[in-house]
Each structure stands twice: as C-alpha cells, then as structure tokens.
From TrEMBL:
Keywords: Hydrolase. It comes from Sphingobacterium suaedae. Pfam families: Beta-lactamase. Signal peptide: none annotated. GO terms for molecular function: hydrolase activity. Its EC number is 3.-.-.-. This is Serine hydrolase domain-containing protein. InterPro entries: Beta-lactam-related (IPR001466), Beta-lactam/transpept-like (IPR012338), Diverse_Enzym_Activities (IPR050789).
Length: 366
C-alpha cells in the first residue's frame, strides 16, 4: 500500500468522524452561495410587496478618488468582485446594477449582516417584554453556562461585543470556534462548551460567538416560535419584502438559526432593512422596533469597554451619524441619515477595498 493511499484512508476516517471537518475540507472557504449547503427555514414574503420607485433620472458618481487615484466607479465596482450595488436616496432607486450573472432575483448569503438583523429582533423582543432588559444576565436564558462562569455576562455585553468570550474567529482554522459554529451540526452543544477569556465589560472583541449567544437567548425567550418565524412575522412581512428569504440552520431536526450569519436574501430586501433604521424603526406609520432601540444601536458610546465604532451589532464607519451592517466577503447595508441615503453592496470578495471608507465618499457626492 502506497503512502498516498494510507494518507487518503486516514483522512477519510477523520472526515467520517467529523462532519464539521468534512464540510470544511470539501467547501474550503465560505462563499456567497453557501445557502445551498446548509439546512434552512424559509421566511415568507407577504402577498403585497413594498417597491422602491426608480428615479426618473438615475445617478451615480462617475468618478471616485481612492489612494490618490481617480477611478471610474462602475468599472471599479465590477473589477472588485461586486455582484450587486444599489443606491437609494429619498426612497427612490438612484442606481441599481448587477454583475457576473447576478440579478435582482439572485440570492446572496448575508454572512455577518445577520448580526445586525439579530439585533433588530432582540430590540423587538424587548419592546414586547419577551426579554426584560439588556442588563439581564444571559444565564437567565442559558442556565447551562452558569458552571462556565457566565453569571456576570449581560445581554448588553453580547450586543456590544464586550463579554470577554474566548472565541477564535479565524475562518481559515478548521479546529477554531468559528468553523465549529459555521460548519458544525450542533450549535447548542458547542455553546455549552464556551468559556470566558476576560471579565465582561472590560474591552471590545468582535467575535461571532457572542451573536450566536444572543440567538440562543432569543430562541429561549420566544419559547414555541422559531427565530425565522419571528423575523417573518415582525419584520419580513410588515416591511413588504419582495422575495422569500431563508435562515441557515446547524441541523435539519430541531435546528438553531445561525444568528451570527446566514440570512439568505436579495439586494432590494436588504435595502429595506436599511430603510427601517433610516426611518427610526418606523415603517410607513407602523413602529416595527422602538426609536429608542434604533438610537441606542447607532450612537457613539465607549463606556464599559465598548468601542465607539460598534454598537449593538452595527458598525459606525465615521462619527457623522452613518452606520452599516457588515458581512464577510464584502456584504454591506450602509445608511447615511443626513443624506437620506442607503447603499447595498453584495460581492464575492471584498476585493481589497476599504468599503467602510468608500461608502461615505460616495454619499458625500449625493
């Protein structure tokens, strides 16, 4: 038996013993088409959709300056792996374009933009009294973490990424936490093994595990409803989404939504989530989530170890009131309230572009 054959046999045994590792090796790295490889729950759109009107004269800045170089913006977007780019101002589509075979009907995995959507649902659950306070210990909902020392971790700590969670965020490490959470098939079991690295409330550290803990808090608060059903009832249908969506799960039977990632939807519907927060949680006269929650989620705050640029699962790219949801490989919902502007960018890669800096530059030209 050759050395290569022995190695292949040994590897196959390892892969058979580890579904997570097998998925990691087979799929290699996350992709915006990963909604095809995981079980999921469907999120139904309503019968009547809200449609953004298209501006009579669409406009997009012809040129942008990056790194002391002028670029044609449309060419730049195409060359840097963008598959969808949408600009909405004053509720009208100013620009909409798709590349590489994608269209307005193409599904794209949200990756960590789902963190911001999870935050919306936490805010609604608080409004409805299903969760009492952001200052509640998470062990009120996840008692299995008490033996691991989580008694002083509050919901607020998870929202602000200051819980002190010990969590390896590296997607390239097949044995790291994030690979377990992304490719694994038992999130509840993985959560029960989590430990703390630091005391809560001392420093900011961005990790997906904290949002998945929020997801389990939300699931426990909802009791007999799934997180996907809650999103459908409270957000997807009231906002008049054009298309059905889905939320990827860890497993088919009794699955838990991957709340740190993995909402699968289209560009126009992602834009409506931006509009909801642009309108302070109000959707055409109906308060979907409280204005107070939107304000808390998008204000600058560096108290109790929090970072000024990150609040309640939303990123703040500047100190000028703008904010964004940010996902792996360059998925973004950017909101500039002063300009009444929303930008959605979806892509196969970030393309080594600092999109967080580019969006405010584009907004300034409107």
């Amino acid at each position: 038996m050759s050395l290569r054959t022995v190695f292949a046999f040994a590897l196959s045994l390892v892969l058979l013993q580890s579904c997570k590792l097998g998925r990691f090796v087979y799929y290699n790295y996350a992709n915006i088409t990963d909604y095809r490889i995981f079980p999921s729950r469907q999120i139904l759109a309503p019968e009547r959709a809200f449609i953004f009107p298209t501006a009579t004269r669409q406009k997009i800045p012809a040129k942008i300056n990056l790194g002391h170089q002028e670029h044609d913006l449309e060419r730049f977007l195409k060359d840097h792996h963008t598959v969808a780019f949408l600009v909405i101002q004053h509720d009208s589509i100013q620009y909409e374009n798709y590349w590489d075979g994608y269209s307005e009907e193409s599904i794209v995995a949200s990756f960590s933009m789902a963190k911001s959507i999870t935050s919306i649902l936490i805010g609604i659950a608080l409004d409805e009294g299903l969760i009492k306070s952001v200052d509640e210990p998470i062990t009120n909902y996840i008692p299995e973490l008490r033996p691991n020392g989580f008694e002083n971790v509050r919901i607020r700590h998870l929202l602000q990424m200051t819980s002190g969670l010990d969590f390896n965020e590296g997607y390239a490490n097949p044995f790291g936490h994030v690979a377990t959470f992304y490719y694994g098939t038992n999130l509840r079991k993985a959560i029960s093994k989590l430990q703390l690295k630091d005391a809560p409330g001392e420093s900011f550290r961005y990790t997906s595990g904290q949002t998945q803990l929020l997801g389990l808090v939300l699931e426990r608060a909802l009791k007999n409803r799934t997180i996907s059903a809650y999103l459908q009832e409270k957000v997807w249908q009231p906002l008049g989404m054009e298309f059905n969506a889905s939320w990827s799960l860890d497993r088919t039977e009794n699955g838990l939504e991957k709340t740190f990632c993995c909402i699968n939807a289209r560009a126009r519907d992602f834009a409506k989530l931006g509009r909801l927060y642009l309108k302070n949680g109000n959707w055409n006269g109906k308060q979907i989530v409280s204005e107070k929650w939107v304000t808390e989620s998008t204000k600058q705050d560096s108290s109790d170890g929090s970072a000024w640029f990150y609040q309640y699962q939303w990123w703040l790219p500047t100190k000028n009131g703008d904010f964004l949801a940010d996902g792996l490989l360059g998925q973004y919902i950017y909101v500039h309230p002063e300009k009444h502007l929303i930008i959605v960018r979806l892509g196969k890669k970030t393309g080594e572009v600092n999109w967080e800096q580019l969006f405010p530059q584009i907004a300034a030209l409107y």
